[in-house]
Design goal:
57% of the residues lie in helices and 0% in strands. It is mainly alpha-helical.
Length: 232
């Protein structure tokens, strides 16, 4: 589940009109290898072939590649399964080289992607830029008298409760954002592990308590029942 399709469009517009991706001060023409990979991505209809091109582009960081990724991302519809896979591939490229300009994508879309590996990669990338990430996560539109961070916090806690294997990655984000951690939390723990029911219940209870204290909400954010863990 990508968080919202409308937010997807807003992010693309922000990046196209606002800050340029990191490295955009250098040579703008793509290398021959990059040009070949970008052409293969555009002309091949196979999702697997597109993902192979993206994996190869991970090693090439130029303004031309950055512009290409943003342009192609803006064409995709997250409600279509094939497009969602390709979106995930682009998010993983950005996660491999996080910068301030792509943080909104990694936070608002990467953390809510259906692919668990995209969620984990996005969480790892976001926590590499904690100061910038906290600024992004704590700003936005909100109704008068409301904290703009409240909706995102509620969504992250709900997301954490959806599937057990997502909990470690989302909790890592909440720890970075809040500066708080529950008793027994291990910051270096493997994000691929699936917590047992006891740990999951304790984690959700802690973060719902943090939510209530931070936002003074009268009700808890909804937490979906856990589905069976997907083995990595």
């Amino acid at each position: 589940m990508l968080r919202t399709l409308s937010f997807h469009g807003a992010l693309v517009l922000f990046l196209m009109l606002g800050a340029a991706p990191a490295g955009a001060q250098g040579e703008s023409r793509p290398s021959a290898k990059a040009e070949t990979l970008m052409t293969a991505f555009r002309t091949n209809q196979s999702v697997d072939a597109k993902l192979r091109s993206l994996r190869s582009l991970e090693r090439i960081r130029t303004p031309a590649v950055d512009d290409f990724l943003l342009a192609e991302y803006s064409k995709l519809d997250s409600s279509r399964p094939a497009d969602a896979q390709v979106l995930g591939g682009i998010l993983r490229v950005w996660a491999g080289r996080p910068s301030r300009s792509v943080l909104p994508f990694l936070i608002y879309e990467g953390l809510f992607h259906d692919d668990t590996e995209v969620v984990r990669a996005s969480a790892t990338a976001v926590t590499q830029l904690p100061e910038e990430a906290r600024a992004v996560m704590s700003t936005g539109r909100a109704r008068r008298g409301k904290d703009p961070a409240e909706s995102l916090a509620a969504d992250l806690i709900e997301r954490m409760g959806e599937r057990a294997e997502l909990l470690p990655a989302i909790e890592k984000i909440l720890v970075m954002w809040s500066g708080k951690s529950r008793p027994g939390y291990k910051p270096q723990a493997n994000l691929k592990r699936a917590p047992d029911d006891k740990e999951r219940a304790a984690t959700l209870e802690f973060w719902k308590g943090w939510f209530d204290g931070r936002f003074k909400s009268k009700g808890d954010p909804a937490v979906a029942p856990s589905k069976p863990a997907i083995q990595p």
